[in-house]
Amino acid sequence: ESAQKHLPEEARSVERYADAMAENLDALDIGCAVLSDLEVTAKSLQPAKVVILPYNPYMPERVTEELIQYIRQGGKLLAFYSVPEKLRPVLEIQGGQHLKAASPGNFAAIRVQSGMLPGAPAVVSQRSWNINAFQPAAGATRVLAEWLDDKGQPTGYPAILGSSNCMVMTHVLLSDEAGK
């Protein structure tokens, strides 16, 4: 809801990606609750096994602090595309420079590194037009999946990073292969 006030041009996208995430979880029989970022507290998040941020281009400082407290108390986070700068050290990720695809098809698919995400498909179509180029923190975070171009060649950019308390995807989750 804070995006509606601070970035009204992004409000529709925020709602779309939140709704899509809830629908995907429901299709997998995974229960979830959708919370307003205006109501979030570390205490309200404590019962959650994982907090998912489908697309949060604006996050109030107070909410960032609540998420940091939740994570420091053992909470887990799954974030897509945007991660507030203050939260990055806690998640043990670096960077986040916005990077447009050099050409159409530059970020066409995600290939999971062998053995990194058991049960996940080896390659997933995901035609992204840009990413936030997050990087792993040495010794703390691993690249779990990488971007491939439309010819199946690695682009050199991580698609999914993981540490002991989070997974971060460098773009929003598109519905290219939803439900597969």
Spans of at least 5 consecutive residues whose pLDDT stays below 50 are none
Spatial gap, N to C terminus: 30 Å
Structural class call reads alpha+beta
Q: What do the pLDDT scores average to? A: 93
Measured as a percent range, the helix fraction is 10-25%
Count up the helices.
Answer: 5
Placed side by side, the strands forming the largest sheet appear as 1-2-9-8-7-4-5
Q: What overall geometry do the principal axes of the alpha carbons give? A: globular
- The count of strands amounts to 9
Strand count, sense and barrel status of the largest sheet are:
7 strands, mixed
Radius of gyration: 16 Å
Structural commentary:
The longest helix is centred in the first third of the chain and has 17 residues, at 11-27. It contains 5 helices and 9 strands; from the N terminus they run αααβαβαβββββββ. Strand 1, helix 4 and strand 2 (77-80) form a beta-alpha-beta unit. With 180 residues, the protein is α+β, with helices and mostly antiparallel strands. The chain has helices at 2-6, 11-27, 42-45, 61-72, 88-91; strands at 51-53, 77-80, 93-100, 107-112, 123-128, 130-136, 142-148, 154-162, 166-169. 23% of the residues lie in helices and 30% in strands. The strands form 2 sheets. It has a 7-stranded mixed beta sheet, with no helix packed on it.
Kindly summarize this structure in a few lines.
This protein is α+β, with helices and mostly antiparallel strands. The chain has five helices and nine strands, in the order αααβαβαβββββββ.
How is the topology of this model organized?
Elements: H1 2-6, H2 11-27, H3 42-45, E1 51-53, H4 61-72, E2 77-80, H5 88-91, E3 93-100, E4 107-112, E5 123-128, E6 130-136, E7 142-148, E8 154-162, E9 166-169
Parallel strand pairs: 1-2, 2-9
Antiparallel strand pairs: 3-6, 4-5, 4-7, 7-8, 8-9
